[in-house]
Amino acid sequence: VASNTIKAGARSGQATVEIRIEGPPQKCKVLSANSYDASYVNIEVNCPEDGNSSITDYWIEYRIAGGTKWKSTDFSASIPQPFVVGGFAPFTAYSLRATAANKYG
Fold it and tell me: What 3 state SS string does the chain have?
């Protein structure tokens, strides 16, 4: 999605066009995952580019390391990080991934 702003210049026939491209956020990175207690983890996420539109939601997905089935939980962007995710079994390794969404996806 693009939005245009046209400003007339000082000379006749001169204009400046500013184009703002908006789209879904880029891929996020899990910055840290620290044990909260035996079955909960604090997770901090960084999404380097928001697609020029405010992030509205985050999805944190996890699975047992080497597994194939992801479990998902979502958070509103209005919730401050770190996010607390539960359901982990003690002494079990997990893989984590994060996704962000805005009004474009």
Answer: CEEEEEEECCCCCCEEEEEEECCCCCCCEEEEEEECCCCEEEEEEECCCCCCCCCCEEEEEEEECCCCCCEEEEEECCCCCCEEEECCCCCCCEEEEEEEECCCC
Task: Confirm if 96 and 43 have CB atoms less than 8 A apart.
Answer: yes
Distances, alpha carbon 14 to alpha carbons 5, 6, 20, 71, in Å: 14, 10, 20, 55
In contact, 23 and 2? CB cutoff 8 Å? no
pTM listed for this prediction: 0.70
Question: What pLDDT band is residue 13 in, cutting at 50, 70 and 90?
Answer: low
Buried b (16+ CB within 10 A) or exposed e, 57-74: ebbbbbeeeeeeeeeeee
Over residues 61-88, mean pLDDT: 90
Query: Distance (Å, rounded) from C-alpha 44 to C-alpha 66?
Result: 22
